Amino acid sequence: MLVYNDGIENEHSPLANWLVAAATVGASYWAWQQPELLWDGLAKTAPWGAENLLIAPFFHLDWEHLFWNMYFLLCFGNSIAGGMAAWRYLEFYMFLIAASSIGSALFLGGLSIGASGAIYGLMGFFIVAFGRVNLQLWLPPAFVLPLPSWLFIAFRVGADIWAVWAGRGGATDYWAHLAGFLAGVSWAALLKKRGLM
Fold this sequence. Notes:
This protein has 8 helices and 3 strands, in the order E-H-H-H-H-H-H-E-E-H-H. It is mainly alpha-helical. It has one domain (2-193): Rhomboid-like (Rhomboid-like fold, Up-down Bundle). The chain starts with a strand and ends with a helix.
């Protein structure tokens, strides 16, 4: 199942989001060339260091992990980046990765590798700003299903809440997802309250 074409017209160029994606791909590829940094260095560093909270979400475990995170980063992030100045979007994104990393540190005691927590933050912003917009879900081989964005995002977040409640572990950092989502919702709600959205 792939999500595409939210139909939102951008006021600005989403260049800032493409820069985030490029930085993430570059950082991940660089880390793969020296795995001792990723596992023996960064993963064992105290999680409360500001540089670690902000760097870890740019690294990914493998190409599949990177691909899907970048896919959803572009799906949701481009519409958000297109609605604000580039510097404001970059500030917002750094806030999301810090919030998701803090969620990992608080509840798991370690760092979260990967951008999925920040992407859940983008979905949190999206559900406040564009919750009534329909997403187009492509179901192979050729079936397209229009679905309200709030329903798609609510399903994803609900699945993570259930996973936390059921005590599911594994490689997925559900706490980073939920912390990022709440951060994104909070940022969007604040902008809405101030009449900036």
